Amino acid sequence: MVDVGDKPITRRRAVARARVAMTPETARRLADGDLPKGDALPVVRLAAIQAAKFTPTLVPLCHQVAVTSIEVDVSVDVATGTATITCTAHALDRTGVEMEAMTGASVGALALYDLVKAVQRDVEVVSVRLLAKSGGRSGDWRAADLD
Fold this sequence. Notes:
The chain is α+β, with helices and mostly antiparallel strands and 147 residues long. Helix content is 31%, strand content 33%.
């Protein structure tokens, strides 16, 4: 585990996104809250928040970070059959919150799969990626293809 003890405490932020592909019919049912397990979107948000908070337990050698807030947005594009989970993690600490944001987005996508699998088994988590981070020694970073 990397020693971060000599680094100053700074405000940190990271944004990650997961995308989930399904049929437009499944996406419509997801958006309408018409799934066998009920309205999935609040459950997906809670799963993402809970996972982000447990990141050091799930990811070996990941520091426990003083997370100050986690925001999760779940959007559904019925026409393309795509759900997008965006997780933003904030902290005041000596190391970043990229892993918390990515873990939140990832587990949110897995929870979404679990909630829609009764109507479609071949739903696919197609991507999980860091979109941006700020704070710390390395400063701000944003994925180049987002500009």
